[in-house]
Amino acid sequence: MLRGVRIIAVPVAVACCLALTQAASAATLVGDYQLQGTRASSGSGPALSDVGAGTNTFQNDTVMGTARQVLGFPLGNGVRMSPAGLGTSASSVVTTFRFDAVDEYRKILDFSGGVSDNGIYDKGGRASFFGTTEFLSTGTVFAPNTYATVAIVSQPLATTRIYVNGTQVIGADEMFTPTVDSLRFFVDDGTTTDENSAGAVSCIRVYTGALTNAEVSGIGASATCQPSAPPAPPASTTKKKCKKHKKKHRSAEAAKKCKKKKKR
Questions:
Q1: Are 192 and 261 contained in the same domain?
Q2: Is residue 224 one of the residues assigned to a domain?
Q3: What is the domain count for the chain?
Q4: Could you tell me the CA-to-CA distances from 159 to 119, 129, 134, 172, 239 in Å, in that order?
Q5: Considering the domain boundaries, does residue 252 fall inside one?
Q6: What percentage of the chain's residues is helix, strand, coil (to nearest 5)?
Q7: Rounded CA separation 105/109 (Å)
Q8: Which of 5, 7, 19, 221 could form an SS bridge with 214, CB 3.0 to 4.6 Å?
């Protein structure tokens, strides 16, 4: 893990401007894993498979205020999407998870099939892109036993953007590129040891193409890895306003008629 480290602050104003100027999304959902008693995808992707010697188990938890089923994984275990079908073009991954421990390197996403140290990590509570150079978030974004939504967006000839709960925390000038046709979550490669944590995952969504800044901001901190539906306007309030308007209208008409009668 001894490599050059770059810490890049991502100004909020810049992120907002990017969100306003980016073109419409070209991202296509290929894997949607809600983990409600099944590892199967509601999209076209394959079912997730377990990685590690232990046993991943479905359990009930509270995720960002929502009672929900999650997939718990013991230390040194995780899940794999294979084939991922991402190739070397733009891709996006969103996952909501928690780690029991965040004090050292804890691998979030491995795109080498478990043969390389490169990947996305928690490092002492900070987000880390570990490639040719290591890129770190400026502050801590992870806490033990606390769910976070992490989005990774990679584009050829551009940067890999990493977001936590809808806010960009890393802009790495290296591309996130799977070197094999699979993605491994929450379990480290075979070249190092003790860079794992037990925990639980609530959802994983995988896309071909790049999500826009606005789309990731819309997902934010999400128990389902997708935007919340906008609240519908309360019908009762609208009806009350209409009734009040009708009453006012009728009373005004009545007042006019009374005036005419008085003049006669």
A1: no
A2: no
A3: 2
A4: 14, 11, 13, 5, 50
A5: yes
A6: 15, 35, 50
A7: 12
A8: 19
CA distance 257 to 227: 54
Same domain, 88 and 48: yes
- Please report which confidence band the pLDDT of residue 89 belongs to, taking 50, 70 and 90 as the band edges: confident
Q: Domain range holding 245?
A: 236-264
Per-residue pLDDT at 18: 39
**Inter-residue contact 32 to 205 (CB < 8 Å):** yes
Q: Is the residue at 170 inside a domain?
A: yes
Tokens 């925990």 locate to 199
pLDDT tens figures, 128-186 = 999 889 999 999 999 999 999 999 998 877 789 999 999 999 998 888 777 788 899 99
Largest CA distance in the chain: 101
Q: Which of 203, 209, 207, 211 is nearest to 61 (CA)?
A: 203
Residue with tokens 């991502």: 10
Is the pTM higher than 0.70? yes
Dist CA 96 CA 118 (whole Å): 21
Q: Residue 228 domain-assigned?
A: no
Who contacts 205 (Cβ-Cβ below 8 Å, separation ≥6)? 29, 31, 32, 33, 93, 94, 95, 225, 226
- The neighbour count for residue 44, using CB atoms within 10 Å, is 11
Identify the residue whose tokens are 């005419």. 260
Statement to judge: residues 186 and 245 lie in one domain: no
